[in-house]
Design a protein that fits this description.
With 180 residues, this protein is of the alpha+beta class. The protein has five helices and six strands, in the order ααβαββαβββα. The protein is flat.
């Protein structure tokens, strides 16, 4: 029994040393400056809005060639492959971004394009939790929800449901309920 316990401890020690060695190799392979590399590329990039759907990366590269050497042109598309109408252009030099911003409100394929510096996404920063349902009123602008308002002579459900004081059970989920 003691011999088996020793064997298990030796195996566990060997496994720990193997895991530590693998972790050290991963740390060596993956440079710590990878995130800063993205930020550095963002400082050399511009966001172009109102791009014509038929525009090609070559046309955008030609349009921005006067600013500096274009490294990459990315036209974003939806899940069906249709262009969304905006693009990112990355330059080799950071000072080319200032020249590119001067092309703001210039015309490309008959459309006035908007050129801005590319912003760097901050990981973990959320824009909120969506629109949500909110609290109170429950659709009051349509004449529904809130306090039931009496027996056919005003307020809330009295008017919206024939004026007889009929109110569905629950809160605001009566006839014509459409959650979306």
């Amino acid at each position: 029994m003691k011999q088996k316990l020793k064997e298990l401890e030796q195996e566990a020690a060997k496994l720990r040393s193997t895991q530590q060695g693998a972790a050290a190799e991963e740390a060596e392979e993956e440079p710590a400056g990878e995130a800063s590399g993205k930020e550095e590329a963002d400082t050399r990039s511009v966001f172009v809005n109102n791009v014509d759907w038929g525009a090609t990366p070559e046309e955008l590269q030609q349009h921005f060639a006067t600013c500096g050497t274009v490294n990459r042109v990315t036209i974003l598309t939806d899940k069906f492959g249709q262009p969304k109408g905006f693009a990112y252009i990355e330059f080799l030099e950071a000072d080319a971004v200032d020249n590119a911003i001067m092309l703001d409100n210039s015309e490309l394929r008959g459309r006035q394009i908007k050129v801005m510096r590319k912003r760097t996404n901050v990981p973990g920063l959320k824009r909120g939790r969506g629109r949500g349902r909110g609290r109170g009123f429950y659709g009051a602008p349509r004449g529904r929800g809130g306090y039931y308002g009496g027996y056919g002579y005003g307020g809330g459900y009295g008017y919206g449901y024939g004026g007889y004081g009929y109110a569905p059970r629950g809160r605001g989920r009566g006839r014509g309920y459409a959650p979306y």
